[in-house]
Structures are given as structure tokens and as C-alpha cells.
Write a structure and sequence with these properties.
Number of domains: 2
Radius of gyration: 25 Å
CATH class of the largest domain: Alpha Beta
Largest sheet: 8 strands, mixed
CATH architecture of the largest domain: Alpha-Beta Complex
CATH topology of the largest domain: Spore Coat Polysaccharide Biosynthesis Protein SpsA, Chain A
Number of helices: 19
Number of strands: 15
Helix content: 40-55%
Distance between the termini: 56 Å
Strand content: 15-25%
Strand order of the largest sheet: 3-2-1-4-7-6-8-5
Length: 488
């Protein structure tokens, strides 16, 4: 087995990165890789394969990285990696996920491998962050690789290009394509496990739960080895076939994804007896807001006067109901390209709307939800929210973390949803319909603090029961009527 080409005669490596709506995750990786290309472009090339040719955010990123080779293909990780490998010219092909982070010595490892009689291998697995769960999972992965020779694709699998082509590339599987390839490689030659780490984002474990995610991963692997169909496993894991569900063309029309840093921002603040907090909330709204509308939902204190004094446009919706107030605010202010919904109790930090708006202006999202991580929420509110989120995730195969009211949404996307709920099911209706309509949804952590004044829901037992019942009924009603909706 040869050691590979000399550095002067050919590229040593080709990095293939499959992406599907991953512009924000990909940007950091490309910055690091193209910096290396600038120092020695004879060492390697970078090939990015896009599964959605209409992703304008990725097109913009392509203009910023002219050293990268860009290609389009049908969606599906195996399909995209095969398309990238067909373009590769390096002696080695390294397959990386968009959210991966590589160490500078990654290519030195491949040079050392080139002097050995190996057909492929993988880098060490690391999870970013200091969570103790991450260290346990890393040890488990190291044990799995050492004793069973089973790395996953997220730790960076590399293979000799001639061997990859001889094997016919990745099988067209919706899941476990990396495991299947490594098993075939192991049958024909020696595999090499590098100590150089590839670091991945902890977002998947933080979203699903460290233990839950790990148990699911192990369970899927065991089911695969037991002969369960990869298509069935993919439906169980993703809730759909990933090669189809992430293709916007298969789900009907989607919101225009063109980056627009000048989209105006309208802030809508439903308020009911929030005199204690409304002034401070308005003071903390950042200058990016082009308009602020406070919707008085039947206040009997000084909320209206203080809102006017704070510079807000005030409209009245005397019939109480959170959804009614939001709808009244939308009717009163129809000019904003982005709408931000913000509670009037000062439990959120209005300055964080900059972070919520940014993915929409960049063309990477249609709906950005703030999920609450701070203090001040009573146990009844936390339990009720967790119950509703779990039910939504189960029925619609979503991965929501919260139903927080602090959120930003493109106005044209919101109008497509046809919002109708008039009470506490408003946030649920928006998130369910956003999933059904194929909107690009991002959840970002937002800070929390104890609210000022008494909660309209968790402040009384009757309020908790009434709101909880309404939310559950909303979920069930949306589920039973899901086939009647058309978002085209």
C-alpha cells in the first residue's frame, strides 16, 4: 500500500462538508479552514455540498469564501458526501459536519497516516463546553471506538480516496451511513484512530437532554445491528425522512430567505395591569426597534398613562386574552418586517431582542424563539410548560425547549400562519403552525429574572388550572385539525 502522493505533486487531503440550512454553523468552520488554505493552498481543498440550492444565506457565505469549492446536490447526508467525494482530488478525503471544530494539527495526523498501511480512520471525539456529562460521553465514545471500531461521522471520518471509490462510497441510507461505511472499511484494511480531537457543539445534547440523547444513540445503534431498517430508524429519530423533510420544496412554499439587514423591527407588548413594570420595560428596549406598540388588555391601574409617557403607541383591546392582545397589536402595526413579542412584566431582558432578530436579518431563520434559562418562574409554570412542550414534541416530532413569549418572527411568515387563538394558546399555535408550514425555526437562550407584579397565570390556583387546560385543549385541537391546514 503506497504512502500517498508527495506534497509537491497533488493535494494531500480534500475536506467534504455536507450542509443543509447550516450557514451559521458553517461560517466559523470555514473561517478556520480557509485560514489554513491561505498559508499553504497546496496541502488541501475544501468542498461544501449544499442540499438546498435556494438557501440564499449559504450563497452569501460562498461569496465570502472564494477559496472553497461549492456544489449542490439532492438533500441527504450520504448523497451530499458522495457528491463532494466525486469532486475531491486529494489523496485523503475527510468528511466533516458543519458544526465541527478541527485542531490545526489535523493535517499532520493525515501525513503520519499516509506512511502507514491504513485505509481510513477517525479523529478523537470532543464536545465543546465544561459540562461533566460531556466528559462521560467522550469516554464512552472512546471506548466504543477502541473496542468495536465504530466511530460516528461527527468525529471526522477520513478515508483514502481510491479506497472510497473502490467501495462505491456511502450507501444511500437516511441514517447509520457512517457506521455502515466504517464496517466495510474494516473488512478490507486497517483503521487508524487519531488522538487529535474534532470538537462538536453540545447543542444536540442540551436540546434533548444529556442522558436521553445518549440512550437514544445507543438504542439506535443496537437496533441497527439487530437488523431494523435504517428508514424506520430515521423516522423514529428525526420524525421523518431527513432527505425529504428538510427540502423546502417538498413542504410547500417557504418564506424568502434573502439576507436583509435593514428589515424594520416592530415590538408588540401586551399589557394587563403592569404599571409596576411597563416604564422599565420600555426604557430597556434597544434602539433597533422602529416602533413599539403597547396593547392595553383592560388595565385598571396606570399602565396606559405610563406607557404613553414611555413613548409607546398604545392601543386598546378591552376583551381580555393574551392572543387577542397580540392580534390587536398586529392590526395596529403592520409595517414591521420583523415582529418581536415582549411581555410587559420585565421578566425578560429587552436588550436581548438584538440576538433574536439577528438570525432573521441574516436570512437564516423565519421564527426565533427565546427559551428561558433564568430564575423567577414558579414550579407550576415550569411543570406546565414542560408538559405542553413534551406533548408538542411527541405529536409533531419537534424538539422545542420552551413556549416562551419573547420571540421574533418575520411578518410575512407570521401572516402565512393565520393565527387565530385569542387566549393562552397563542404561543402554542404559532410554534405548531410554524413547524407545519416548514418555517426555519431557531431557539436561543434568553435570561430571566423575577417578574414585577403578580402573574396572570401562576399567581393563582385558578389561573394555573385555567391556562393549563386551555393550552392542552389548544394542542389537541391543533392535532385533530392538522390535515385541514394549507400554508401554500
Amino acid at each position: 500500500m503506497t504512502a500517498g502522493p508527495s506534497r509537491s505533486s497533488a493535494l494531500w487531503a480534500s475536506i467534504v462538508i455536507p450542509v443543509l440550512h447550516d450557514a451559521s454553523e458553517l461560517e466559523w468552520l470555514l473561517d478556520a479552514l480557509t485560514a489554513g488554505l491561505a498559508m499553504d493552498p497546496a496541502d488541501y481543498e475544501v468542498v461544501v455540498v449544499n442540499g438546498d440550492p435556494d438557501d440564499q444565506a449559504l450563497r452569501l457565505l460562498g461569496e465570502q469564501h472564494p477559496r472553497v469549492r461549492w456544489a449542490d446536490s439532492a438533500p441527504g447526508r450520504a448523497t451530499q458526501m458522495n457528491a463532494g467525494a466525486a469532486l475531491a482530488t486529494g489523496h485523503w478525503i475527510l468528511f466533516l459536519h458543519a458544526d465541527a471544530r478541527v485542531e490545526p494539527q489535523w493535517i499532520e495526523e493525515l501525513r503520519q497516516v499516509g506512511s502507514l498501511s491504513v485505509v481510513g480512520g477517525a479523529y478523537a471525539f470532543r464536545i465543546a463546553g465544561s459540562a461533566w456529562w460531556a466528559r462521560i460521553i467522550e469516554r464512552g465514545v472512546a471506548w466504543r471506538v477502541r473496542w468495536f471500531a465504530l466511530p460516528y461521522g461527527d468525529q471526522g471520518i477520513f478515508v483514502r480516496r481510491d479506497i472510497f471509490r473502490r467501495l462505491g462510497g456511502y450507501r444511500s441510507l437516511p441514517i447509520m451511513e457512517d457506521v455502515e461505511l466504517v464496517r466495510r472499511l474494516g473488512r478490507i484494511g486497517t483503521l487508524y484512530w487519531s488522538s487529535c480531537p474534532v470538537t462538536v457543539s453540545p447543542r444536540r445534547w442540551e436540546r434533548d437532554g444529556w442522558l436521553t440523547r445518549s440512550v437514544v444513540n445507543v438504542g439506535l445503534l443496537l437496533l441497527y445491528f439487530a437488523g431494523v431498517s435504517p428508514s424506520w430508524l430515521a423516522r423514529m429519530y428525526y420524525g421523518r425522512d431527513p432527505s425529504v423533510a428538510d427540502d423546502p420544496g417538498r413542504r410547500g412554499a417557504t418564506t424568502i430567505a434573502t439576507p436583509d439587514t435593514e428589515l424594520s423591527v416592530s415590538v408588540i407588548v401586551p399589557a394587563l395591569n403592569e404599571a409596576e413594570a411597563i416604564g422599565a420595560v420600555l426604557d430597556e428596549i434597544p434602539p433597533l426597534a422602529s416602533s413599539v406598540t403597547v396593547v392595553d388588555n383592560g388595565s385598571t391601574d396606570q399602565t396606559v398613562e405610563l406607557a404613553v409617557a414611555g413613548g409607546a403607541h398604545v392601543v386598546s383591546e378591552p376583551q381580555r386574552g393574551y392572543g387577542r392582545a397580540c392580534l390587536a397589536g398586529l392590526r395596529a402595526d403592520s409595517d414591521g418586517g420583523i415582529v418581536v413579542f415582549l411581555d410587559a412584566d420585565r421578566s425578560d431582558f429587552p436588550a436581548e431582542m438584538k440576538s433574536l432578530v439577528a438570525p432573521i436579518r441574516a436570512g437564516n431563520a423565519d421564527l426565533v424563539l427565546g427559551y428561558r434559562e433564568g430564575v423567577g418562574r414558579p414550579w407550576s409554570a415550569r411543570v406546565g410548560t414542560a408538559l405542553c412542550v413534551t406533548l408538542i414534541n411527541l405529536l409533531w416530532r419537534t424538539s422545542y425547549r420552551d413556549l416562551g413569549p419573547f420571540r421574533a418572527v418575520r411578518r410575512d411568515a407570521l401572516d402565512r400562519l393565520g393565527m387565530v387563538d385569542q387566549t393562552w394558546g397563542w404561543t402554542i399555535e404559532m410554534q405548531v403552525k410554524a413547524k407545519e408550514a416548514g418555517l426555519r425555526i431557531v431557539e436561543l437562550p434568553v435570561k430571566q429574572r423575577p417578574r414585577l407584579g403578580q402573574s396572570k397565570i401562576s399567581g393563582t390556583v385558578i389561573g394555573v388550572v385555567r391556562a393549563g387546560t386551555r393550552m392542552i385543549m389548544t394542542i389537541l385541537a391543533l392535532w385533530t385539525t392538522r390535515h385541514r391546514r394549507n400554508y401554500g
